[in-house]
Amino acid sequence: MARTSTAPDHPDQPPIPAHLWRVAALSGMASYLDAALIVSISVNLAIYRDSYDMGVWMAGAISAIVTGCIAVGSLVGGRLADMFGRRRVYNLDILCFALGAVVITLAPNDLVLLVGVLLAGLAAGADLPTSLAVVSDAAPAHGRARLVSFTQVMWVLGIVVVIFLGYVLSDTGMTGARIITGHLAVAALVTWQLRARLKLDDEPSDQAVESVAAVKTVEATAVVVVEEEEEEEEVASAASRGPALKNVWNRAALLPMAATFVYYVTWGIGANTFGQFGTYLLVTVSGASQRLATGINLAFLPIALVLTFVFVRIADTPWRDRLFYAFTVVQVVAFCIASLTAGALVGMLVFFVLYQISNPFAGEASYKVWSQLLLPADTRGTTQGLTYALSRGVFAGVAFVTPALMEYSVSLLLWSITLCMAASGVAGVYVVRVLIARSPDAADAPANAGVARA
Predict the structure, then answer these.
(1) If phi over 0 gives left and psi between -120 and 50 gives alpha, with beta otherwise, what is residue 300?
(2) Which among 12, 165, 228, 351 would be 20 to 30 A from 302, CA to CA?
């Protein structure tokens, strides 16, 4: 039988020190702000359109632009973190996000709003792979999946908070929109202050430093003996430049990177579409009012939040991947129901219940954990940044055409998404039964325990 995890098959898991949970929470703010930014633009889009007198294409492009910027930020930020130190990028990108959120909040017109969206989107994207790498580097092997998956709790929380604020402030117009985005700026600034107090070792990881040192030792023996001080200086210099980019394209990195990318991009097309256009679909297709549509989203999100905590609890046990099999089927069934009913309100209510139940066990949390278990430690920022970037780029393109496709044929849109969700299930099964099963030491990969008690 294929092996699904290296964790013991019992609930007695070694405890995780409190200060590492704090690292996970502060790193999880990247996921909180990422989700909250996307959803806040979605919730406020109609208000922006009326207040700034936007054209229809400008309004439609905003959602695509924020997702595209997150994609670019993920690609660049992950690589910069591996090259120049994850702590440096970890602290800088959250500060840039705060600046972008302030610009969005105070924007007097749509052009200034666009500048704020660009800045906040790039910073949010840069923070995603960097923060996950920081958690993974700090985590002990027996608790890595739990700590990484906790960032997904923050992601769901970001959605819950913004939709709650959108529901409460639905009748306040631009004032409410500014409060929603203003809270992102405050949250980012507080996170920046708290992150600055963490005692983190600069990257690269111990594994990378030891690898460079070994190479230097062989060269010194074969060619010429150098003084000890000069050798240490060369090792530090080589390590500070980060791992060679060619290391991203070897089999150890490329195969898990490709597999997790296929899973995330196919799953994310459905999740991102409903995240950005779920309310829009309920109003324009299902016939719900704006308040009812927002209320439906808000009512079912606590289910996902609670079950995401459950996922964190089991993330370091074989149940993580066992439950994936069951809930990926439930998730595909949910999308089939939405497609068969062509977006009718009753069908959408059933869809939202099933989707929020299945999503925590067969969604982005699985992608995050698998990536950190399978990707090489020295290129985690670069490789996961690449998969994030490519996926978010696809999401941006899909978001741009979704309103037009919905108007042309909602059934075509929904069945296309259902097909993508089924494909993600196949990709996920491959990751579990082949990659993780063939890498019994994945969960025991060296980690840089570079987080001391603050």
Answers:
(1) alpha
(2) 12
Which residue from 178, 162, 20, 206 is spatially nearest to 105, judged by alpha carbons? Answer: 178
Helix axes 18-51, 86-106, angle to 10 degrees: 30
User: Mean pLDDT, consecutive 10-residue segments, the chain of 454 residues?
Assistant: 41 73 88 90 81 73 81 80 72 90 93 91 87 80 83 89 87 90 95 83 45 41 38 42 58 83 94 80 80 80 88 88 94 95 90 92 89 77 80 84 84 94 95 82 40 42
SS3 187: helix
Long-range CB pairs of 236-242, under 8 A, 24+ apart, other chains included: 238/212, 239/204, 239/208, 239/209, 239/212, 240/84, 240/85, 240/204, 241/83, 242/79, 242/82, 242/83, 242/84, 242/203, 242/204, 242/208
> Residue 379: CB partners within 8 Å, gap ≥ 6?
82, 243, 247, 248, 253
Taking the C-alpha atoms of residue 380 and residue 383, their distance in angstroms, rounded to an integer, is: 5
User: In the beta sheet, which residues pair with residue 452?
Assistant: 199
Which candidate, 69, 72, 95, places its Cα nearest to that of 185?
95
Rounded CA separation 362/267 (Å): 9
CB 268 within 8 A of CB 421: no
Contacts of 71 (CB under 8 A, 6+ apart): 125, 388, 389, 390, 391, 392, 393, 395, 396
Dihedral angle of Cα 126, 131, 132, 135, to the nearest 10 degrees: 170
Extract long-range pairs of 227-234: CB within 8 Å, 24+ residues apart: none
Q: How far apart, in whole angstroms, are the C-alpha atoms of residue 440 and residue 447? A: 16
* Cβ pair 364, 153 in contact under 8 A: no
In the block, which residue shows the tokens 């996922």?
311
Compute the distance between CA of residue 303 and CA of residue 301 in angstroms, rounded to an integer: 5
Please tell me what DSSP assigns to residue 13.
Answer: P
User: Please, where are the H alpha helices in 169-205?
Assistant: 174-196
Q: What's the predicted TM-score (pTM) here?
A: 0.73
b/e burial code for range 87-101 (CB count within 10 A of at least 16 → b):
bbbbbbbbbbbbbbb
Dihedrals phi, psi of 200, to nearest 5 degrees: -115, 135
- Give the DSSP H or E segment for 451: strand 451-452
